[in-house]
Design goal:
heterodimer; A: 123 residues; mainly alpha; B: 539 residues; alpha+beta; 3 domains; seven-stranded antiparallel beta sheet; 7 strands; globular
C-alpha cells in the first residue's frame, strides 16, 4: 500500500481516537458542547471504547505501512503530534475539533478505500 | 505515608529539574537539531552540489578506489561510504595512517567525492550540523571525558525527573487533554504536564538510551570485571564487540588488491542492488588485505547491518555476519537505533524533530514554572524577590531564548565569516558561545520583562532574516531552491522563517500583555501559555 494513501489515515485515526477519549470526559465534553447535558454512562463508555479502538487502528495501519519496529516508533510521534494538536484546539478552537475529526476521518477513510481499490490488482 | 512519599518525589523533581535543567535544555536543543545534521551540513556548505539521487554502487566504488590509489595508497585503512540516503548524502572516502584500528598516533583524512566523476568536492570549512550533534553529548571547551560525564550526570537526573514527574503527576489520564491558558501559574503547570505526557514514551526512550550509549564509560567496572582493568581491558572489550572474523595484522609485503567493485557486485548478488552502504578496507595492497562490505544499518531501528569479510588479494569470502546478533547486543543496538533515528525517512524524521522540540518545551516550561511559582508566592507576601529567584529568572531567559539566539548566530557566522579564514570551523563555534555570553549579560542587565521581549524580537529577526542572508550570500535562495525541488535548502530556509514567526508572535503576545490598561488583568490572567514568568513585574 502506498504511503500517500495510508499516512493520512494514521494521523486522522489517532486524532479522532483522542477526540473521542476527550469527549467521554466531563471537562472536555463541556468544552466541545457547551450547554449540552453529559450523556449517560453507556454512551460515554461506548465513546471511550470507540476512541481506544480508533487509536489501536491507527497504530495497526502504521505497522502495516512501516513494519512493526519502524511503525511503532513512528506511531508514537504521530500520537504526540495529534494529541498536542487536540490539546491546543480544545481551549482555542473548540468549534473545530468535532468537524475536523468527523470530516477528516471520513475523508481519510475514503482516500484509503480509493487507494485499496486502485492498487488492488483485478483478477 | 503515601503523601509523604509524593512530597519527597516532588522535592526531588523540583530540584533536580532546576539544577540540571539549563544543561539539559542545551543537550535537548542541540540534539534536536542533530536530527537534521546532514541537512544542516549541506546548508552550511552551499558550494556543494545537490546530493545525487541514486548511484551505481559498482561504478562509484571504482571511482573512489581510483582516488584512494592516487592519494592514500600506503595507508593502513580505507573506508568508502556510498551515498545511500540522507545519512550519507555524498560519496565519501576516509583513509587512515598508522594502526588500522585507530588509537593514538593515527592520522585520518576524510574527503567528499563527486559520485559521478570521482573528483573531490570543494566547500567552505565548517563544523556544520555534526558540530551541533557533537556538542549534544560532548559539550564544548571541555575535555571529551568531562563532557561525557557531565552530560551523563544530567541524563541520569533527567531520568530521575521523568520518573518522579510521573509519581508527582496525580492525574495523568484525567488531565491528559487539559490545558487552561490565561491562568498564570496554573497554565504553566498545565503546559509542563501536557508537553511531558504526550511525548513521554519518546522522553523515556531518549533518556534511557542516552545512558546506554555510554554505559561502559559510566560503568567501567563491569568491563573491567570481565576483560581486565584499565585501557587494555576496555580495548579488548571493544575489539570483541566489533569483532570481524578473518582480520589479520599486515604482512608488510605488497600484493595486488582485487578491484573493489567486484566485492560490491558479489554483495549485491546476495543482498540486492543498492544495499551496500560501506566498504572498509584493511591494509590495502598488502598480502593480508581484508575487505569488509557492510549493508545499510539505517534500514530499521535495529541499527544492524549484515557484513561480509573478504580476502582482498584472492577475493575469497572469509565470513558472513548476519544483521541481527542475538541477545544483549541486539537490545543495545535497538535502543541506540531508536535514539539516533537514522532509519527515519522524511516524515518520521520530522516526527522525531517534533518530539525533540516537545522535550525542549518540557524542560523550558519546567524551568519557568519554578520561577513563576516562587515569584507569585513572594509577591503575595509582599517580599522583594530573593536573589536566588532573580538569578534563576535571568538564567532561564539566557537559556530558553538566549541559546536559540546563539544558535542563529552560529548560522550567521557560517555565511559572514571570510571563506578563507584560518580555523573557520572553530570560529563559528566561538561566535555561538560569544553570542550566548552576550545574551546572558543582556539578561542580567535589563529589567527581566523588557529583556524577554527584546531577546524574543532578536530571535525573531535572527531566524526570520536567515533566508534573506542566504539569498544575499549564495545563489541558493528560496526563489531557486523551491522550483528546483532542492528540499534541503528550501526546508532549512522555510523552517528558519517559521522559527522567526514563532518568536515574533511570542514577543507580540508578551508585549501586548504588559501594556497599561490590560496590565492589571495581565498580572493574574493573560493570553495563552506564552511567556508568563514576568507578567507580575509590570505593575
Amino acid at each position: 500500500m502506498s504511503a500517500a494513501f495510508t499516512v493520512p489515515a494514521v494521523f486522522l485515526f489517532a486524532y479522532s481516537g483522542f477526540v473521542l477519549l476527550a469527549r467521554s470526559m466531563d471537562r472536555h465534553f463541556r468544552q466541545l458542547h457547551p450547554g449540552r447535558p453529559m450523556p449517560a454512562w453507556p454512551m460515554r463508555a461506548g465513546t471511550r471504547l470507540a476512541g481506544w479502538l480508533l487509536i489501536a487502528l491507527s497504530w495497526w495501519v502504521a505497522v502495516q505501512l512501516w513494519g512493526a519496529g519502524n511503525g511503532t516508533a513512528a506511531w508514537f510521534g504521530v500520537a504526540s503530534l495529534t494529541a498536542g494538536l487536540l490539546i491546543w484546539m480544545l481551549p482555542w478552537r473548540p468549534g473545530w475539533v468535532m468537524p475536523f475529526a468527523a470530516y477528516g476521518t471520513l475523508a481519510s477513510l475514503l482516500w484509503l478505500s480509493f487507494g485499496v481499490a486502485v492498487l488492488t490488482p483485478i483478477s | 505515608m503515601k503523601e509523604h512519599f509524593r512530597q519527597s518525589m516532588a522535592w526531588l523533581h523540583t530540584w533536580t529539574g532546576l539544577v540540571l535543567g539549563w544543561l539539559l535544555f542545551f543537550v535537548f536543543v542541540t540534539g534536536t537539531a542533530g536530527y537534521f545534521d546532514t541537512e544542516i551540513d549541506r546548508w552550511m556548505q552551499p558550494e556543494l552540489p545537490l546530493a545525487p539521487a541514486s548511484v551505481d554502487a559498482q561504478e562509484t566504488v571504482r571511482l573512489a578506489q581510483e582516488h584512494l590509489d592516487q592519494h592514500a595508497r600506503g595507508n593502513a585503512r580505507w573506508v568508502i561510504s556510498l551515498p545511500l540516503d540522507r545519512n550519507d548524502p555524498y560519496l565519501s572516502v576516509f583513509s587512515q595512517q598508522g594502526r588500522a584500528h585507530g588509537g593514538p598516533g593515527m592520522h585520518a583524512d576524510r574527503v567528499l567525492l563527486d559520485a559521478r566523476t570521482g573528483t573531490p568536492l570543494q566547500a567552505r570549512e565548517t563544523g556544520g550540523g555534526q558540530q551541533l550533534y557533537r556538542m549534544h553529548w560532548k559539550l564544548h571547551y571541555v575535555p571529551d571525558a568531562a563532557g561525557e560525564w557531565l552530560v551523563g550526570l544530567a541524563t541520569m537526573f533527567m531520568l530521575v525527573a521523568l520518573v518522579t514527574g510521573i509519581v508527582v503527576h496525580k492525574k495523568i489520564f484525567a488531565d491528559f487533554f487539559t490545558f487552561r491558558p490565561g491562568k498564570g501559574q496554573r497554565s504553566w503547570l498545565d503546559a509542563h504536564n501536557v508537553t511531558s505526557v504526550i511525548s513521554l514514551p519518546f522522553q523515556l526512550m531518549i533518556t534511557y538510551s542516552g545512558l546506554v550509549f555510554l554505559m561502559t564509560v559510566y560503568m567501567p567496572m563491569i568491563v573491567s570485571a570481565f576483560y581486565g582493568p584499565g585501557e587494555a581491558g576496555q580495548r579488548a572489550f571493544r575489539d570483541e564487540l566489533a569483532a570481524r572474523p578473518g582480520l589479520m595484522q599486515p604482512a608488510r609485503s605488497p600484493a595486488a588488491l582485487v578491484p573493489l567493485e567486484r566485492f560490491v557486485a558479489d554483495a549485491e548478488i546476495r543482498w540486492g542492488a543498492g544495499a551496500v552502504s560501506l566498504l572498509d578496507v584493511r591494509h590495502p595492497h598488502d598480502a593480508h588485505a581484508r575487505v569488509i562490505v557492510r549493508g545499510n544499518s539505517a534500514a530499521d531501528p535495529f541499527r544492524a547491518a549484515p557484513s561480509l569479510v573478504y580476502d582482498g588479494v584472492s577475493g575469497e569470502l572469509l565470513a558472513e555476519q548476519p544483521a541481527i546478533e542475538p541477545g544483549a547486543k541486539a537490545t543495545r543496538d535497538l535502543l541506540l537505533g531508536l535514539h539516533e533515528g537514522l532509519f527515519a525517512g522524511p516524515l518520521v524524521r520530522w516526527l522525531y524533530f517534533l518530539s525533540g522540540v516537545l522535550g525542549c518545551a518540557m524542560i523550558a516550561t519546567g524551568l519557568l514554572l519554578w520561577a513563576v511559582k516562587r515569584r507569585k508566592r513572594q509577591a503575595r507576601q509582599a517580599d522583594e524577590p530573593t536573589p536566588g529567584l532573580r538569578l534563576v529568572e535571568r538564567l532561564n531567559l539566557a537559556t530558553v531564548v538566549g541559546l536559540p539566539c546563539a544558535l542563529a548566530a552560529y548560522f550567521w557566522a557560517n555565511r559572514l565569516l571570510p571563506v578563507d579564514l584560518a580555523g573557520r570551523a572553530a570560529w563559528e563555534v566561538h561566535v555561538l558561545f560569544l553570542a550566548w555570553a552576550v545574551m546572558a549579560v543582556h539578561a542580567a542587565w535589563r529589567p527581566t520583562r523588557r529583556a524577554w521581549i527584546e531577546q524574543l524580537w532578536l530571535a525573531a529577526a535572527a531566524y526570520g532574516l536567515l533566508p534573506v542572508l542566504n539569498a544575499l550570500t549564495t545563489g541558493r535562495h528560496l526563489g531557486r531552491s523551491l522550483p528546483e525541488g532542492d528540499w534541503v535548502f528550501a526546508g532549512f530556509d522555510l523552517s528558519m522563517l517559521a522559527f522567526g514567526v514563532i518568536f515574533a508572535s511570542l514577543a507580540v503576545q508578551l508585549d501586548r500583555r504588559g501594556r497599561p490598561g490590560i496590565a492589571s488583568q495581565a498580572a493574574v490572567s493573560s493570553s495563552p501559555g506564552v511567556i508568563g514568568p514576568c507578567a507580575e513585574e509590570t505593575t
